[in-house]
Amino acid sequence: MSWQTTVPLLLILLAGLPHGATDGVIAQYFAAKRLLSFTLFIILYSAIAALACIIWYLAPFAGLVIFVAFSISHFGMMDTSESAHLPYRAIRIFAHGVMPILVIATAHSKETAEIFLILTQDDASELIYLLKIATPIWALIVSWLFFQGVLGRRAAVEIGILTIILTLLPPLWGFALYFCGIHSLRHFRKVIRVFQPLKKQFYWIIFAISIFSITFVLTMAYWLTDANFNNSLIRATFIGLAALTIPHILLIDCFKALHRVTKHREPT
Description:
Helix content: over 70%
Structural class: mainly alpha
Oligomer: single chain
Radius of gyration: 19 Å
Largest sheet: none
Distance between the termini: 57 Å
Protein backbone atom coordinates (compact mmCIF):
# COMPACT_ATOMS: atom_id res chain seq x y z
CA MET A 1 0.00 0.00 0.00
CA SER A 2 1.49 3.34 -1.08
CA TRP A 3 1.03 6.30 1.25
CA GLN A 4 1.07 8.59 -1.80
CA THR A 5 -2.19 6.98 -2.83
CA THR A 6 -3.69 6.19 0.56
CA VAL A 7 -3.21 9.60 2.23
CA PRO A 8 -4.97 11.77 -0.39
CA LEU A 9 -7.81 9.23 -0.65
CA LEU A 10 -8.23 9.27 3.13
CA LEU A 11 -8.26 13.08 3.01
CA ILE A 12 -11.06 12.92 0.44
CA LEU A 13 -13.00 10.51 2.66
CA LEU A 14 -12.38 12.20 6.02
CA ALA A 15 -12.24 15.89 5.08
CA GLY A 16 -14.14 16.06 1.78
CA LEU A 17 -16.94 13.52 1.85
CA PRO A 18 -18.53 14.86 5.09
CA HIS A 19 -19.60 18.09 3.36
CA GLY A 20 -22.29 16.03 1.66
CA ALA A 21 -23.49 14.89 5.08
CA THR A 22 -24.92 18.37 5.58
CA ASP A 23 -27.71 17.21 3.26
CA GLY A 24 -29.05 15.44 6.33
CA VAL A 25 -29.22 18.79 8.11
CA ILE A 26 -31.24 20.21 5.22
CA ALA A 27 -33.55 17.19 5.25
CA GLN A 28 -34.05 17.47 9.00
CA TYR A 29 -34.94 21.16 8.61
CA PHE A 30 -37.59 20.52 5.93
CA ALA A 31 -38.91 17.46 7.75
CA ALA A 32 -39.54 19.70 10.78
CA LYS A 33 -39.07 16.83 13.26
CA ARG A 34 -41.40 14.53 11.29
CA LEU A 35 -39.60 11.18 11.46
CA LEU A 36 -41.50 9.72 8.50
CA SER A 37 -40.53 12.61 6.20
CA PHE A 38 -36.88 12.39 7.24
CA THR A 39 -36.89 8.60 6.77
CA LEU A 40 -38.42 8.90 3.30
CA PHE A 41 -35.73 11.42 2.36
CA ILE A 42 -32.95 9.03 3.48
CA ILE A 43 -34.56 6.15 1.55
CA LEU A 44 -34.90 8.22 -1.64
CA TYR A 45 -31.38 9.64 -1.28
CA SER A 46 -29.94 6.13 -0.77
CA ALA A 47 -31.95 4.74 -3.71
CA ILE A 48 -30.52 7.39 -6.07
CA ALA A 49 -27.00 6.64 -4.79
CA ALA A 50 -27.60 2.90 -5.29
CA LEU A 51 -28.83 3.56 -8.84
CA ALA A 52 -25.63 5.49 -9.56
CA CYS A 53 -23.59 2.48 -8.35
CA ILE A 54 -25.61 0.15 -10.57
CA ILE A 55 -25.05 2.37 -13.61
CA TRP A 56 -21.31 2.43 -12.89
CA TYR A 57 -21.28 -1.36 -12.47
CA LEU A 58 -23.17 -1.99 -15.73
CA ALA A 59 -21.51 0.75 -17.82
CA PRO A 60 -18.33 2.03 -16.09
CA PHE A 61 -17.32 4.48 -18.83
CA ALA A 62 -20.80 6.02 -18.92
CA GLY A 63 -20.70 6.23 -15.11
CA LEU A 64 -17.37 8.07 -15.26
CA VAL A 65 -18.61 10.51 -17.91
CA ILE A 66 -21.78 11.24 -15.91
CA PHE A 67 -19.71 11.75 -12.75
CA VAL A 68 -17.32 14.14 -14.51
CA ALA A 69 -20.16 16.12 -16.11
CA PHE A 70 -22.11 16.44 -12.86
CA SER A 71 -18.93 17.39 -10.97
CA ILE A 72 -18.07 20.14 -13.43
CA SER A 73 -21.53 21.64 -13.05
CA HIS A 74 -21.54 21.29 -9.25
CA PHE A 75 -18.04 22.71 -8.72
CA GLY A 76 -18.88 25.63 -10.99
CA MET A 77 -22.21 26.32 -9.28
CA MET A 78 -20.53 26.44 -5.87
CA ASP A 79 -17.58 28.56 -7.00
CA THR A 80 -19.89 31.13 -8.61
CA SER A 81 -22.58 31.17 -5.91
CA GLU A 82 -21.36 34.51 -4.52
CA SER A 83 -21.46 36.09 -7.98
CA ALA A 84 -24.66 34.43 -9.19
CA HIS A 85 -26.20 37.85 -9.85
CA LEU A 86 -23.61 38.66 -12.53
CA PRO A 87 -24.28 37.97 -16.22
CA TYR A 88 -22.91 35.01 -18.21
CA ARG A 89 -23.04 32.69 -15.23
CA ALA A 90 -23.14 29.56 -17.41
CA ILE A 91 -19.78 30.53 -18.92
CA ARG A 92 -18.32 31.26 -15.50
CA ILE A 93 -19.64 27.95 -14.15
CA PHE A 94 -17.76 26.16 -16.92
CA ALA A 95 -14.55 28.12 -16.29
CA HIS A 96 -14.56 27.28 -12.58
CA GLY A 97 -16.08 23.83 -12.67
CA VAL A 98 -13.97 22.24 -15.37
CA MET A 99 -10.71 23.64 -13.96
CA PRO A 100 -9.69 20.92 -11.44
CA ILE A 101 -10.60 18.06 -13.77
CA LEU A 102 -9.21 19.61 -16.94
CA VAL A 103 -5.92 20.76 -15.40
CA ILE A 104 -5.26 17.44 -13.67
CA ALA A 105 -6.17 15.43 -16.78
CA THR A 106 -4.04 17.50 -19.17
CA ALA A 107 -1.05 18.19 -16.90
CA HIS A 108 -0.89 14.56 -15.74
CA SER A 109 -2.46 12.72 -18.66
CA LYS A 110 -0.54 9.49 -18.15
CA GLU A 111 -1.35 9.21 -14.43
CA THR A 112 -4.97 10.29 -15.04
CA ALA A 113 -5.34 7.65 -17.77
CA GLU A 114 -4.14 5.04 -15.28
CA ILE A 115 -6.70 6.23 -12.70
CA PHE A 116 -9.49 6.20 -15.30
CA LEU A 117 -8.41 2.68 -16.30
CA ILE A 118 -8.71 1.57 -12.66
CA LEU A 119 -12.16 3.17 -12.40
CA THR A 120 -13.62 1.82 -15.64
CA GLN A 121 -11.51 -1.31 -16.19
CA ASP A 122 -11.19 -0.03 -19.75
CA ASP A 123 -9.43 2.59 -21.84
CA ALA A 124 -10.88 6.06 -21.18
CA SER A 125 -8.39 8.02 -23.29
CA GLU A 126 -11.27 9.58 -25.28
CA LEU A 127 -12.33 11.53 -22.20
CA ILE A 128 -8.81 12.88 -21.65
CA TYR A 129 -8.60 13.77 -25.35
CA LEU A 130 -11.89 15.68 -25.09
CA LEU A 131 -10.59 17.62 -22.08
CA LYS A 132 -7.40 18.49 -23.98
CA ILE A 133 -9.47 19.83 -26.88
CA ALA A 134 -11.44 21.98 -24.45
CA THR A 135 -8.28 23.45 -22.88
CA PRO A 136 -7.74 26.38 -25.34
CA ILE A 137 -11.42 27.35 -25.08
CA TRP A 138 -11.21 27.23 -21.29
CA ALA A 139 -8.02 29.34 -21.30
CA LEU A 140 -9.72 32.00 -23.47
CA ILE A 141 -12.71 32.10 -21.11
CA VAL A 142 -10.44 32.54 -18.06
CA SER A 143 -8.60 35.35 -19.89
CA TRP A 144 -11.95 37.00 -20.68
CA LEU A 145 -12.99 36.57 -17.07
CA PHE A 146 -9.99 38.63 -15.93
CA PHE A 147 -11.50 41.73 -17.55
CA GLN A 148 -15.01 41.29 -16.08
CA GLY A 149 -14.76 43.63 -13.13
CA VAL A 150 -13.34 43.06 -9.66
CA LEU A 151 -15.09 39.73 -9.02
CA GLY A 152 -14.12 38.43 -12.45
CA ARG A 153 -10.49 39.43 -11.96
CA ARG A 154 -10.44 37.80 -8.52
CA ALA A 155 -11.92 34.61 -9.98
CA ALA A 156 -9.41 34.51 -12.84
CA VAL A 157 -6.50 34.96 -10.43
CA GLU A 158 -7.84 32.19 -8.19
CA ILE A 159 -8.20 29.87 -11.18
CA GLY A 160 -4.67 30.76 -12.30
CA ILE A 161 -3.13 30.04 -8.88
CA LEU A 162 -5.02 26.74 -8.57
CA THR A 163 -3.94 25.79 -12.09
CA ILE A 164 -0.29 26.19 -11.11
CA ILE A 165 -0.75 24.22 -7.89
CA LEU A 166 -2.68 21.38 -9.55
CA THR A 167 -0.07 21.21 -12.29
CA LEU A 168 2.70 20.76 -9.73
CA LEU A 169 0.92 18.29 -7.45
CA PRO A 170 0.34 14.60 -8.28
CA PRO A 171 -3.24 13.98 -9.53
CA LEU A 172 -4.75 12.48 -6.36
CA TRP A 173 -3.12 15.10 -4.14
CA GLY A 174 -4.31 17.88 -6.43
CA PHE A 175 -7.88 16.63 -6.45
CA ALA A 176 -7.83 16.15 -2.67
CA LEU A 177 -6.58 19.73 -2.21
CA TYR A 178 -9.33 21.20 -4.37
CA PHE A 179 -12.11 18.93 -3.14
CA CYS A 180 -11.31 19.30 0.57
CA GLY A 181 -9.68 22.74 0.79
CA ILE A 182 -11.80 24.65 -1.73
CA HIS A 183 -15.08 22.97 -2.61
CA SER A 184 -15.98 21.27 0.68
CA LEU A 185 -14.84 24.23 2.76
CA ARG A 186 -17.00 26.62 0.73
CA HIS A 187 -19.98 24.34 1.08
CA PHE A 188 -19.53 24.04 4.85
CA ARG A 189 -19.26 27.83 5.17
CA LYS A 190 -22.43 28.32 3.16
CA VAL A 191 -24.38 25.77 5.21
CA ILE A 192 -23.18 27.33 8.49
CA ARG A 193 -24.17 30.80 7.25
CA VAL A 194 -27.64 29.59 6.23
CA PHE A 195 -28.36 27.65 9.43
CA GLN A 196 -26.57 29.92 11.92
CA PRO A 197 -26.69 29.26 14.80
CA LEU A 198 -26.22 25.50 14.36
CA LYS A 199 -27.92 23.27 16.90
CA LYS A 200 -26.14 20.33 18.52
CA GLN A 201 -28.37 17.86 16.72
CA PHE A 202 -27.10 19.18 13.38
CA TYR A 203 -23.54 18.24 14.31
CA TRP A 204 -24.72 14.76 15.32
CA ILE A 205 -26.53 14.34 12.01
CA ILE A 206 -23.40 15.36 10.06
CA PHE A 207 -21.25 13.03 12.17
CA ALA A 208 -23.60 10.05 11.83
CA ILE A 209 -24.06 10.39 8.06
CA SER A 210 -20.31 10.93 7.58
CA ILE A 211 -19.52 7.74 9.48
CA PHE A 212 -22.10 5.83 7.43
CA SER A 213 -20.74 7.21 4.12
CA ILE A 214 -17.10 6.51 4.99
CA THR A 215 -17.98 3.00 6.18
CA PHE A 216 -19.87 2.44 2.92
CA VAL A 217 -16.81 3.40 0.84
CA LEU A 218 -14.37 1.36 2.93
CA THR A 219 -16.69 -1.66 2.77
CA MET A 220 -16.83 -1.25 -0.99
CA ALA A 221 -13.02 -1.12 -1.06
CA TYR A 222 -12.87 -4.40 0.84
CA TRP A 223 -15.50 -5.94 -1.46
CA LEU A 224 -13.58 -4.80 -4.57
CA THR A 225 -10.23 -5.92 -3.18
CA ASP A 226 -7.97 -7.61 -5.71
CA ALA A 227 -4.22 -8.12 -5.80
CA ASN A 228 -3.71 -4.35 -5.49
CA PHE A 229 -5.51 -2.72 -2.53
CA ASN A 230 -4.53 0.77 -3.75
CA ASN A 231 -6.53 0.19 -6.93
CA SER A 232 -9.49 -1.10 -4.91
CA LEU A 233 -9.39 1.96 -2.65
CA ILE A 234 -9.26 4.29 -5.67
CA ARG A 235 -12.26 2.55 -7.25
CA ALA A 236 -14.25 2.49 -4.03
CA THR A 237 -13.51 6.13 -3.20
CA PHE A 238 -14.48 7.56 -6.56
CA ILE A 239 -17.41 5.23 -7.26
CA GLY A 240 -18.71 5.93 -3.75
CA LEU A 241 -18.11 9.64 -4.27
CA ALA A 242 -19.97 9.51 -7.58
CA ALA A 243 -22.89 7.63 -6.02
CA LEU A 244 -23.28 10.20 -3.24
CA THR A 245 -22.62 13.15 -5.56
CA ILE A 246 -25.70 12.59 -7.74
CA PRO A 247 -28.37 12.97 -5.01
CA HIS A 248 -26.28 15.75 -3.41
CA ILE A 249 -26.31 17.73 -6.67
CA LEU A 250 -30.03 17.12 -7.20
CA LEU A 251 -30.70 18.53 -3.73
CA ILE A 252 -28.29 21.48 -3.76
CA ASP A 253 -28.25 22.59 -7.41
CA CYS A 254 -31.56 21.36 -8.86
CA PHE A 255 -33.89 21.70 -5.86
CA LYS A 256 -31.81 24.70 -4.66
CA ALA A 257 -32.29 23.56 -1.07
CA LEU A 258 -30.00 26.10 0.60
CA HIS A 259 -31.66 28.97 -1.27
CA ARG A 260 -35.08 27.68 -0.18
CA VAL A 261 -33.93 27.45 3.46
CA THR A 262 -32.59 31.01 3.29
CA LYS A 263 -35.91 32.30 1.94
CA HIS A 264 -37.86 30.32 4.53
CA ARG A 265 -35.81 31.66 7.42
CA GLU A 266 -36.07 35.29 6.33
CA PRO A 267 -38.27 37.34 8.64
CA THR A 268 -41.64 38.20 7.14
